[in-house]
Structure formats: structure tokens, C-alpha cells
TrEMBL record:
Residues 32-59 form a coiled coil. This is Porin. Residues 1-20 form the signal peptide. Keywords: Coiled coil, Signal. The keyword Acetylation does not apply.
């Protein structure tokens, strides 16, 4: 910069000398001082220009970084909601073609959009998250006898209390069984959910309250929950556990429920778990005496290469204090075993045998059993087509529902 100024001063001086008579020393000194002032003013303008250019470069870089962040958020945040908010869901369309061979039984020949579910989650920070699940069942045919339902199955806050401990508050799925917490159609075999995990364990089963989860050691975890409970209607003489789901819709919380689970996943492909729930009063104070109940559940799931196995047992032990209409229903039990074979990434076969008894009776046989065999074809990793054949035997020995089911399901 100084070299430029000196050269400029020399040029100006030479021009002045060429246009005027030879100056006196005093005039020469005055000319030099004026030219030096002009040079300093020019240098200041150049410095200001350099500073503004640097500031512009910084702003451009900041704008570029912001644009990159917004693009990344839009690409990774499910529909441009941002990388802290996620959107997902799943759905199932079923076709059932089943013959009922019992006296007075009705056949099934129907097509049903069984479920359409949307997930919405948000990460407030590295420690605090929100999860929700909104479900429409049976396409919500308003005004008919078989109207569908809109249900809020999950809406809770989860917070990390420590490196290996998490807490929940809100409405959440209970930690029981294989399907209750993980039931997207691409994650299990068969068009319909198995009867043991829908009649004995009333999947999908959610309650409102508090929960604590954590790990004792790598592969060994626990869950504990204090929640609202089931409520059977005493006036209608209800005894079936599934009838008692309140779905946290102005739920009677006179008597709460307590749930605990211990799970081991320390071996690749293996899950072994056991759950226990204590229900203080299945009738929530409707009767003079409390009718308490305990659910015991245990299961194993293993996937080793192409071969898989699922097995589950669940049983309710219910206080038999009102046996006038619950004779035989004080113990509601079921189990199933399901081997599978997946020779290709997108093709799998299964067979399932199940037994369950959730009926009241006068001491006679009230047990159902069912065989299911079928195939799953995964068009994509989370898009699946299903076909199965079932034979369900009623307590009287007749085939209550025999036939085939078709389904398509997806999740994202």
C-alpha cells in the first residue's frame, strides 16, 4: 500500500511540475503536503473497502451454512419438519374369507382397512423426547352399526434420567408380550394378530401414568410402570379381559395397576422376557369387594439366520369372589408357538399353533385352539404382502373359522 502511495505522489508531482513554472522550495513543500493528505485519504478509503469486503465474505459464509443446515433438516426431518421432528406411520388392509361350521355361526367374507396409524415425535433436547400415535380403525364408517374408531394410543414425554435410565409420563403402551409394543405389519407373520396376544393380552393395550426403564447390565433391561387399569362393567356381567380396556378416555382411576418386565437380549437375535402386572380391582369400585387380578407373561423370540422361533405364554389369575357369572373365568390363559423360515430376504414362511381360554362356563370345556400356516412377501423392507390359511376349533369340537386371509401392510 505504501509503494502505491509513493508512486502516486511522484506521478502527481511530475504532472504539477510539467504544467507550472519551477516552484520555490516553500511551494514545493506545500504541494508535497497536499499530495500526502490526498494519499492518506485514498489509503483510508481502500482500507474501508477491504474491511467491507471481509464482512461480506463472513455474511456469505454464514448464509451458506444456514442454507446447508436447512437443506439437511428438510432431507432428514420427514417432510421438512426439521431434524428434531419425525413423522411416520403404518397401515393394514385385510381380506378375510372364513367359513363358520358351528350351528348358527356366521361366515366372514369381508375387506377391511383395519388400521391407519400416524406417528409424530419431537426431540426437545438430547435428553427429552415426545412420542405420539394416532390410529383410525376400520376406516371410521360413521353412522353405521360397525363404525370405526379414532384412538390416541400414545402421547408421552420420555426423559433420560441417567446414562442407563429413562422415565416416561403420559399415555404409553404397556411392556407386556411380543406384539403390544412392536406391532407394525412388516414385523410379524400372519394377516391378523394372534389370538393369545389379543384376547389374553389385550393388544393393543395402552394406559396413562408413569414408567421407568433402564439397563442393569449390557443386554439385561427392566421396565416398571404405575398406570390406570382395566375396568369391567359389573352391570353387563363382563369377565373378558379385553372388554376392560378404558383407552384413557375419562378412565376411572379409582384403583391403579402396576406392571414390571425383565428382558434379556444379550445374545444376537435372542429376546427372552417375563412380565408381571397386578390389577388392584378389575371393576374399579363397582362392587362391594375388590376383584384383584395378576397377569403372568413369558416369551422367547429368536432369529438365527433364516430360521426363527416365537413362543409365548400368558395367564390371568383373577379373584373368584363373584362366581355367579364368572364361573370358569377366574383363570384366563393362552399360549402359542410359531416357527418360521425365511430363505430369502423378501420371502418367509411360518406355522403357528395356539390355544386360549378366556370364556366363562359351567365347568365344561371352554378352550379354543387354532392352526395357522402362511407366507409373507416383503416388496420392500417395510412393505409386506401376506397370505395365510387358518383352522380354528371351538370348544365343542367344530371348526368355528376355517379359511384364508390376505393382507397388505406397510410402515415408514
Amino acid at each position: 500500500m505504501k509503494q502505491i502511495g509513493a508512486g502516486l505522489a511522484f506521478s502527481l508531482l511530475a504532472a504539477h511540475v510539467a504544467q507550472a513554472a519551477t516552484p520555490t522550495p516553500e511551494e514545493m513543500w506545500e504541494i508535497i503536503q497536499k499530495q500526502q493528505a490526498q494519499i492518506e485519504a485514498l489509503e483510508k478509503k481502500l482500507a474501508d473497502a477491504d474491511r467491507r469486503l471481509e464482512q461480506t465474505d463472513v455474511k456469505v459464509e454464514a448464509t451458506a451454512d444456514m442454507v446447508e443446515e436447512q437443506v439437511a433438516a428438510g432431507a432428514g426431518g420427514s417432510g421438512g419438519l426439521g431434524n428434531k421432528t419425525t413423522l411416520g406411520g403404518y397401515a393394514e388392509l385385510h381380506y378375510n374369507n372364513l367359513d363358520n361350521n358351528r350351528d348358527g355361526g356366521n361366515d366372514k367374507d369381508q375387506l377391511d382397512l383395519h388400521r391407519f396409524v400416524l406417528f409424530l415425535g419431537h426431540e426437545f433436547s438430547e435428553k427429552t423426547r415426545f412420542y405420539s400415535e394416532l390410529e383410525v380403525e376400520h376406516a371410521l364408517v360413521e353412522g353405521g352399526e360397525d363404525s370405526g374408531e379414532v384412538e390416541l394410543e400414545q402421547a408421552y414425554i420420555e426423559h433420560d434420567l441417567g446414562a442407563h435410565t429413562r422415565g416416561k409420563a403420559g399415555v404409553f403402551l404397556l411392556p407386556v408380550g411380543l406384539l403390544n409394543e412392536t406391532h407394525e405389519p412388516d414385523t410379524f407373520y400372519g394377516v391378523e394378530r394372534n389370538n393369545v396376544e389379543s384376547r389374553i393380552i389385550p393388544t393393543t393395550w395402552w394406559e396413562g401414568g408413569l414408567a421407568l426403564s433402564g439397563e442393569f447390565a449390557p443386554g439385561l433391561s427392566y421396565d416398571a410402570a404405575f398406570t390406570s387399569g382395566l375396568k369391567l362393567d359389573a352391570e353387563e356381567g363382563q369377565w373378558s379381559i379385553r372388554s376392560g380396556r378404558q383407552k384413557v378416555a375419562e378412565a376411572d382411576a379409582s384403583d391403579p395397576a402396576y406392571t414390571a418386565r425383565l428382558k434379556y437380549t444379550g445374545i444376537a437375535g435372542l429376546e427372552v422376557a417375563a412380565s408381571l402386572q397386578y390389577q388392584q380391582d378389575l371393576y374399579q369400585g363397582q362392587l362391594n369387594d375388590e376383584v384383584d387380578a395378576v397377569l403372568y407373561e413369558a416369551h422367547i423370540a429368536y432369529q438365527g439366520g433364516p430360521f426363527g422361533l416365537r413362543a409365548l405364554w400368558a395367564s390371568w389369575d383373577i379373584d373368584d369372589g363373584i362366581n355367579d357369572f364368572r364361573t370358569g373365568a377366574d383363570e384366563q390363559t393362552g399360549w402359542y408357538v410359531e416357527p418360521s423360515w425365511r430363505p430369502l430376504k423378501n420371502l418367509g414362511f411360518f406355522a403357528r399353533y395356539s390355544e386360549w381360554d378366556n370364556q366363562a362356563g359351567g365347568g365344561g370345556d371352554t378352550e379354543y385352539n387354532q392352526w395357522d400356516v402362511g407366507v409373507n412377501y416383503w416388496l420392500e423392507e417395510t412393505v409386506v404382502f401376506k397370505l395365510d390359511y387358518q383352522v380354528q376349533e371351538a370348544p365343542d369340537g367344530s371348526d368355528e373359522y376355517e379359511g384364508f386371509n390376505l393382507g397388505v401392510g406397510w410402515s415408514f
